[in-house]
Amino acid sequence: MSRDLRWYLRRLRRMSPTEMAGRALDLAARRAWAHRQVLAGQDGGTVPGLRRERLGPVSLPPWAKETLATEARSEVIDAADRLLAGNWSVLGVPRADILSPDWFVDPVTGRRAPEDTLAFRIDHRNEALTGNVKAVWELSRHHHLTVLAAAYWLTDDERYAELVDRQLRSWWSSNPFLSGVHWTSGIELGIRLVSWAWVRRLLDSWPKVGDLFETNNDALRQIWWHQQYLDRFPSRGSSANNHAVAEQAGRVVAACAFPWYAESDGWRRDAAARLSHHFLRNTWEDGLNRELATDYHRFVTELVTVAVVEAAVGGDDLPPEVWERLARSFDAGAALLDVTGHPPRQGDGDEGRALVIDDPDDAPWTGLLGWGASVVGPQPWWPEARPTVVGAALGSLLVTPRDVSDRAPARPRSFLGAGMTILSTDAGHEPEIWCRCDGGPLGFLSIAAHGHADALSVEVRFDGVEILVDPGTYCYHGEPEWRSYFRSTRAHNTLELDQTSQAREGGPFLWSTAVPVDHVIQSGLESDLPSWAARHRGYGRLAGSPVHERTVRLEKPARRLVIVDRVRSGNGHEVRVRFHVGPAVTVALDDARAELTWTGADGAPRRAALSLPAELNWSTHRGETDPILGWYSPRFGFRQPITALEGVAAWSDHPLVTIVDFDAPGRA
Question: What CATH topology corresponds to 62-398?
């Protein structure tokens, strides 16, 4: 049996009968639509039912620019000027062709993805065919064009608008309906629609903007084609995660911003209903996203924000429960941040953005709070938000933030649905000790696509410096051994039995088994001795059905973190406990004691003592590849060596105690 066939069988096992039926109908529709493919250079025809009167999206009010912080304005213009000079990176990779892009090239591998092949026949997961498809797709989300359009809005400098014009015309002519790799994933279409709506809005005062959009047949067809595709081929069933939200958010924005088609009114109502359904389903009542991947919490929050604002100013508001859940989503995001404004690194993250108007390299999480402050208003306990152009623009469309009741009156420390608890020292008592404890499910829906096998793991920071780290993501496609490592139990700060991940991997976005976590207990989260405890049964498939239990306690006065592990019914198994040390930290291991040293943000030396369980045999590993161990991904597409501490022994019923003692401020 081929590898591909085995994957399909595993994937089918995670689908419900309803989902299988829906996918069968999708397959039939794709076959029926094949004849509609348009090749580059062909006449795409006219759009039936196109309305004669075509107005652009609601304009930004003239006073909106006056509300901008000077620094935010300057950062956008500087970013746009770098782009005009040909200096631009996408996912951290320089694009030397940014002034005249090859829309199909992967700058990582140098391969070109198919451009004339019927989209339904392209396997975008095959790197030999498409290159690194994430790198191919990213530029075609057109975030760089919204930055240029924002610079025009701020300056009236036509150089920015002219480059946007050239590149949109290039993309539209190079990617006709159903031709090539850019028609293979609905999420990409949804994000492009958001970008196009905001390009049109930001270029509203440019004299040639109507020639680019309202009277441009390529634009009229592309906006129609994108909405047609998303209407007929939505993500469904076990794939209805952030992709479904992005698709429907794009439809809402496009139907409101470009109501030019006979179908526009029906599309708007349908998209609003679907978006409401998916967002509420994707988000716990406390506001945290269900995918157990923090980066996607921000992404979904951004997507829903641009959609609800577009609908509100278009006179077709989304339901109150969507606004309420969105406000809690902003509150949850604010509650997760450490003292430097950085969130946890739980699960997958690919730096996805809904709308980029500011410099894309500037801190997106504190900027997200700027979005929230403009749209739903901040809470008194929020960290300081970073002023952004997009936040000011969204706020100017609404005029005043939406008043939403029933929000968190104080900073939440725990999110029970996600099983996430933050143990930290009190605000204002620097330097901060911050610890994330993971006691949640593997991920969202039956395939848990973006979750990692990280149950009962911890992530520890001292004054924002990563001490014990989550590894990050590194890649999605093309390097299966690395994709497997970064989402495995081995890569996380938790306990492993028999060198086996807590869940069985079925594919790069598929888990074939779950990791049931229960018995989560937390106490005194606002006291001097906050604690958390949980256990998981992911190893129930091993002999004896062993259960891993972990307790974490932060002793604030002593500046000490205590981690206690125990394996129940683990007779005959090998136990491995690993702690992955941050890239800024130096490690010196002596038997079962590790000295950790680093330089603080203030330039002062810092240290901590890590007392490890003496029952285990401890060793250090750094940048190893056989097997892979001791790696860290600071951002999508990049990896670097770090030191991993590994303790190994045959199972015993004794508790395994790890203690981290942080020096008092000023001592080294």
Answer: Glycosyltransferase (1.50.10)
